[in-house]
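Appendix C reproduces, verbatim, an entry submitted by the partner laboratory led by Prof. M.T., so that reviewers can inspect both the input and the predicted structure.
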Amino acid sequence: QSTWGNRYLLMVVIGLFVKCDLENIGSIEFPENMRFCFTLRQSSGDETRTGVYVCPDELHEMSGSRGTANLIIKFGKSECTMSFTEVKKKTRRVYTAEDSGNFVPIVAFECRGVEPVKWEPSEDDTVNVTTSAGTVFRDVDLSSLEWCEYDEKADSTIAIYKLEHKFEAIR
């Protein structure tokens, strides 16, 4: 059954919270056009789907509505939707050195009939990393849940360790 209670007919905003340890890194940027790969569960049941991508650039017409969604998925006869949403003063797409070791909500989704249960970082869905010395590394792959490199400008090792996530209802 749903982690968020009996809300399978209601819209709920679920935040993806990220936590990691940073070494000599100033920030991690999750780009606006970044897609996210999830394991999703039907809110009114136990059926799950793995490897489902939610893409901000994709918009689909919702049946019986004038609205659109970034993802429409069917569980049996139920049409479930998921869309990116910004929750002012709560979500942000940058994880900073000051955040190291703490959970931060990087993105949120309006969910109807479906809920994310696992984030699966993909090697194709990359982030940008800025070191404490200001060097920028683009297209960093977090699929192994850690990353290490050498910053020549600062003559130091830089790293992201212990990448974790959780989901929480927000608003």
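Confidence is low (pLDDT under 50) at residues 4-8. Additional entries are available on request from the coordinating office.
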